[in-house]
Amino acid sequence: MSIWLASNPWLTVLYGVIVLAILAAVAWFTPWSIALFTFREGLRKKTLIGFLILSILVIFGSMFMTAMMYDTGGTVATDVDVKLIKDICITAISIFGVLIAIFISASVVPTEIENKVVYTVLSKPVRRFQYLLGKFVGVQIIVAVNLLLMGVLFSIALYIKEPIFPRMLLYAIFLTYFEFLIVSAFTFAVAAASTSAVLPTIAGLFIYITGNLTQYLESVVNRSEASESAVDKTLGGLAWVLRNTLPDLQYFSLKTQILSLQINDTPKDIQIPNLVVYGILYALAGYIIAYWVFRRKEL
Amino acid sequence: MSVVIETQDLTKVYKGMSKAQDLVALNKLNIQVNEGEIFGYLGPNGSGKTTTIKLLLSLIFPTGGKMKIMGNANITSPEVRKNIGYLPEGAYYPDFLRGEEILSYYGSLYGMRGASLKKRIDEVLEVVGMTRARKRLIRGYSKGMRQRIGLAQALLSDPGILILDEPTTGLDPVARKEIRDLLIQLRDQGKSLLISSHELLEVELISDRVGILFEGVLQTSGTIDELLTSREFSIKAEEAAPEATQKVREAGLITEDAAAGRVSLRVPENMSLYQALDICKSQNMKIVSVSPRRETLEEVFVRVVGSAVSSKEAQRGER
Amino acid sequence: MKRFPNLVLAVLAVIALALGALQGYRVRNLREADAFYRWLVTASTQLRVFGTITPELEGEEAEKFMDRDLFDRVVAKADQALPDTPVLDGDVDDATGAPYPKLVRYTRTLSTGSLTEEGESGTAAVAANPEQVKKDAEVWRFARSASLAPERADFVRFRRDKRLATAGTQIGVADIYKNQEAPVSIGQMFLGFRKLAAGLVWIQVDEAFHKGEMQRMVPLMRTTVLLDPNFVDAYLIGAWHLAYNLTAQMSDTPGYLKEYVPELGAWVGNKERAYYAAANFLKDGIRNNPRDYRLYFDLGYAVYAEKLNDHMNAVTYLTEATKQRHESWVRRMLYHSLQATGQFEEARAGWEDYLRANPGHAVAQRMIPTNTALTKERDAEALGAQARRLLTQAGQARADGQEAQAAELERQAQELTKQRDALQAEARAIYTDLNANTAGGDEFAQARLWRMQALELHEQGRTLEALALLRQARMEVARFFQEASDLIIQMCIEADLPLNLSERKRILEIERMKEAWTAKPVEVAGRRFDFDAAQDAWRQADYADQETIALTPAAKDLAALRKDRPVIDQFIGLGDNVVFELDGQWYEFHRRSLLGNT
After folding, report:
1. What ipTM goes with this model?
2. Considering only residues 107 to 136 of chain C, which have any Cβ-Cβ distance to chain A shorter than 8 Å?
3. pLDDT digits (tens, 9 = 90+) for C508-545
4. How many secondary structure helices (H) and strands (E) does chain A include?
5. How many domains does chain C have?
6. Domain with C292 in it: what CATH number?
7. pLDDT of residue C186
8. Which of C281, C310, C265, C267 is nearest to C219 (CA)?
């Protein structure tokens, strides 16, 4: 299995082809009018704006927080306050960003079904596949724009403190998007099956939390290896399957590592693209499930 | 004349927990809409009209039977869909857009773009009379305006078929007339319309053919003329003394209206017209007019539905 | 798709999930390789700087930790897998004289040169040296290559079972500190926002400090770095708290109450415990951040040089600090410490370098002649000692009746004495010059002049004048106080003159200390050491006047020995004069250098 780690040029080409193919397919088949419509509608949702405002408050508030809470007394020159700001902000962006992603993914389709606008759309020569794709892409545009906005504000906040262009920030934000992509895709799948936005929202939160705790399954697997009983072994087997199939959002903790780049860090040029592909593959799975559910859904 | 919409034993069953709880929404429905006609689709609430429409538009899927639109069994194909304009019941449109933006959006879903789309939007707005309000947000529209916009979006692709669900419900009389006129105009242009409604008067006024649906079963269908057979006559008479009216009634005529010597009589089915006239004359009434009495659609409706209900109860009573 | 749409879609979904799972496997392997890479860098640095990967362990403990085994295996593979690279300065192991293994050479940061501007905000963020970047990339590629798969698997397993002492990594669930239970739940409760948690705990540390709750700080500091091992400032400030603030409230432990801790190689009282705790804390930081110069600097300068007065270790760590990207003051402190250990030539060479890079630098300009003079003084002293020995031999010869030999020896002694005087005169001239040319006078030079003068007077028998001079001198130059006081005591004893109260107290203290030492022999590395009060020396119990090799802090052999056999530190920490045996060879260590107490 160690070929997996080699930067085999053929593997890179394959990856590149797959990703480009997926992107091209999306670009070609997506009815952009639906996507843009979803985007415009999404931007007006009050909850979204609420989250955004909260995150702005936290980002700019962090500067004041650190100034008040941490007092170096002017004697020790350190970057602790910059580090604190970075940590608070990236946490805020992660939390609010994912909340926005969950909320939007959960509500787009059920809302349209609830207010019957979907009837006017699906009676047009639009296939359900395309409709769903348009909705999904619209959701992604909203998530991406929000993330970008928060990232820009974060950069500004950092720049005020430390006038260096935070290039690493962009990478961190870029990576965060793919974490959100995974959560959003599976939430979207649940939403495609539901008639109200409540269930998918809860499901989305559940997915996010589970995705962050996947690696605990490791300890179940380890324990079962050590134990002899059949029950433990079955549990271990189940845990192994789950651990390997469920998306593990902890992989994206690379983003915090990127943000505070240390000299003894590995170059990121391998890990970031691999995480991008990871995100895209799970998003694909999520979308397929969404379509599978929506295809014969009675409206 | 070709058939544009056709269903064959179309059935839709909503599964319940057990067989007993299955809801049969449509039971072997066979309807036809011909080219260039207005088909009035009637039935009480819950009879399955909207279900039929949803099935035709593939918003839901049949449990059994077949459907053909324009002779095409593949009703989801883009060519078929392009030729259908659908005005749903309730007039819900995303209210943060303007009138023309809505049309632009829907137009793009039809695959229309650019200058031709703009031109078509202008035309369509003109037809429904919404040109002046095009730049207003839909949030500010009245019900009537929404219906018009709805109609506009249904007309965008200049479809050969229009399916309209309750197009005049909730509108004021002026708007109703305008819509009615528009629909007739569209029919005259060669379009086929399927109108589902329980505004019987309206339907009677504009439909060519009518179908009455009750509890998922098509009770009766045919042209207006076929359904509203004139089986009875009306006699209007003057100089009718109350005793004379009483005598006439005893003889079997039905008094509809009697006031100040004037009386409106209805000749029942079993009596011949001449017999009735003799009875009147024998009572020294002065005959003012004799006319064939046409059943209103309402009466037909009530009759048809009523008999269906009673036969159902009889069935239940038998068990 | 038309015929079995549901089935096809289900299959497609499963395929996509499977592909995702495979990709996840790859990502996980990359993360493990990342942690593995960091461990390689850490282990290599540990080997190079501390001389050992795992701390000295005995018996069962040693069995448990697999660091050395694993590292050796990787090094062997690296020798073949990594491309050849020239052996540069600093790539040579002083102990063996042989170059380091290829892997260690690769991970040694190439010095980017000293930054002359002091404006950069402390973060030595990314190695700017393109050579270094290339080397790092090579090692990274090696770390994740297929050939290392078994080692990586072992690494993951050992880390999970807590059998690695040097793995410091930010990624992953558990941490591997030897003596601590990893509170996994704390870290994971934050769902990956451990860095933020670390920051928040750190704020509490700061609060505790400002409130004066010193004891509460320590566990909080540990928690902070547990949550975020890359939080370098926490290590720095934490060590500062331990070494400076905690000890500010303590009182000095009298000498006779101090305990000898062989592992630390020092006599330890309350304050020293804190200092060594600070040192350990910083070493922990180095394990996790092997390339941040600030950790080495604080360890070398703030803890070892300033607090523990251990300039030998200071030199080691400051040197390492200069190998990373660093600020200019690091170098200056290094040269000061070199001077303190008596390595005057190296110090001077350093200052000359510095002056070249920063022309007109005032301190550098003073230090170059200072070190030159010190070299002369040292050589003079050596000559003087030699002359004295020759005279003793001459006396011996005369007593034996070897008149001619005695005369020859005396002549030689005179020769040497003349040379000594010449050197001293040169040194004196340099100091005088320096003192005259520096605005406000050069304290150090002045102090040296007085010292030389006092010693001369004492030699001539004019001890009272010498004492008077010293008493005045020590008031004028604060740095000179301790040394002058010691000289005064020495002279008084030699000339049998009365001492004042504080001097007597000091003598008493020292005597008490020596009493305690004589009464209680110390056990170090399985050997017993007895204290000989008369000679003021610690001797290994089985010493029977064997041949010894002399060692001083400035000796190169000492440095090599320390690298090769770190247990030596445990011996020489005993006192100023230690006689010990190592690998069959007997050594005599004398700490006393030209600058008094080091």
Report:
1. 0.89
2. 109, 121-127, 133, 136
3. 888 888 888 888 888 888 888 888 888 788 888 888 88
4. 12, 0
5. 4
6. 1.25.40.10
7. 47
8. C281
